[in-house]
Amino acid sequence: QIHADSVWAEGITGKGVKVVILDSGVDSSHPELSDSYLGGKDFVENDNIPQDDNGHGTHVAGIITGNGLYTVGGKKAKGVAPNAEFYMLKVCDADGICFEDDMMAAMEYAVSNLDAKVMSISIGGGNFVGDNCDLDPIAAQVNSAVDSGIIAVIASGNDAFYVSSPACASKAIAVGAVD
CA torsion sign, 69 to 20 to 90 to 114? Predict the structure, then answer.
């Protein structure tokens, strides 16, 4: 649907790109992800093992870097950048609850400690109407991360009419579903 295969045919597969994902953790032994996982940190349990006890973070990592080992609908189910590598910063618990202080601490950690050039956040809340939500503390933290050199790609939320925070940050790239 997004024609990623056309981009791969030109040799653009994410090779050399490091992404930091803020989400519910990752199943680091998953065969689709194990060779692209660089490590991470758990801001929920405060340790260095961001184990996914929800499933969402592993799903997001697969969308980004899945190897395409499995066939779905007659095609290999590759991620959009199968040769990229990623760090996982766990900021959401088993119930999918994500606290703002964990998210902000993870963003600061990513800027100060990781060599990722892209930050993926598939978390959001509250609908925002207007040009941007830069006064929201999470959005302000996203803008700060962008000012530090990280490209922020953030889910716009599950609403057809509004963009959630932090995707509504003026320096973020907000992404959403196509149907």
Answer: positive
Q: pLDDT band at residue 171, thresholds of 50, 70 and 90?
A: very high
Rounded to a whole number, what is the largest CA-CA distance in the chain?
Answer: 46
Other C-beta atoms within 10 Å of 141: how many?
Answer: 21
Look at residue 66 in the predicted model and tell me its pLDDT: 96
CA atoms within 13 A on the CB side of 54: 18
* Listed residue (139, 175, 138) closest to 158, CA to CA: 175
Please give the model's pTM, rounded to 2 decimal places.
0.94
Of the listed ranges 40-49, 71-80, 86-95, 164-173, the one predicted with least confidence? 71-80
- C-alpha span between 21 and 69 (Å, rounded): 22
- Could you tell me what percentage of the chain is helix, strand and coil, using 3-state DSSP and rounding each to the nearest 5? 25, 30, 50
Pick the closest to residue 106 from 62, 156, 57, 171 (CA basis).
57
